[in-house]
């Protein structure tokens, strides 16, 4: 009888115990995160040039394992956060699907053939929504991984990239939805006058792919800035190779563009080319920052 009562009591208090465990885990995670940020923003480590770092890595490859283990932890925390935001996005995923379907007339214009199509569409949109919500934290985890290799002033400055990178990603998605899709989708659905029955799976897969990759594409200036900040690329060489860059951009635009006509391809190419030259300008500014840091270290 006692064992039965104990089991019943265990079942009754299980939700409370689970909630307490989650709260304690979150408090511990926030405390650990705050300690890491405080250390990175207050302590000054020795600034080792990237050339010396590469030389040490080649001479002692086992040292890479420590960094890979740290990277694994950052990726794991980012994936957990994506899982949480994806779960939260279930609340409004149906409204997002309806919003994405507006260029073709809303949900009523989509015709499902397979039984599993609606749930597949739901999960795909929820995952993209969860990733978008988690993006600032993903970038923050990336900052936590990179920050130990930067000087304290650079750590402060690089924190600004978290909101900037998020804004650029959202801007890319907005450009895709409000500029590209209204032009591309009518062309795709009216070629040769053939009536098109739009399936939810193919349409949502197509739209989410375009939104995601254009969002990533809009991050290029920031990526170029960081590469220049650590000395991997130089603004002069980037500017001198602009013709090659245009060819590469044309290939990327052809892969991303929903249609094969030059009008839609130009809609993707032009902002990408503009972003490239913005990246060149940011690389020039990064070089100036790098030179000042080297002069201060030499002095």
Total helices: the number is 12
- The total strand number stands at 0
What is the residue-averaged pLDDT?
79
The unreliable regions are none
Please tell me the total number of domains.
2
Structural class by secondary-structure content? mainly alpha
Radius of gyration: 24 Å
Order of helices and strands: HHHHHHHHHHHH
* Relative helix content: over 70%
Shape: flat
N-end to C-end Cα span: 80 Å
Strand content: under 5%
Biggest sheet character? none
Structure keywords:
299 residues, mainly alpha, 12 helices
Tell me what you see in this structure.
- With 299 residues, this protein is mostly helical.
- The chain folds into two domains: 138 residues, no CATH class; 81 residues, no CATH class.
- It is built from twelve helices and no strands.
- Helix 3 packs across helix 5, helix 4 crosses helix 5 and helix 5 runs antiparallel to helix 7.
- The protein is flat and about 80 Å long.
Brief digest:
It is built from twelve helices and no strands. By secondary structure, it is mainly alpha-helical.
Strand and helix map with partners:
Blueprint: H1 2-42, H2 50-59, H3 63-89, H4 93-100, H5 117-146, H6 152-159, H7 161-189, H8 200-217, H9 220-229, H10 235-240, H11 242-256, H12 262-298
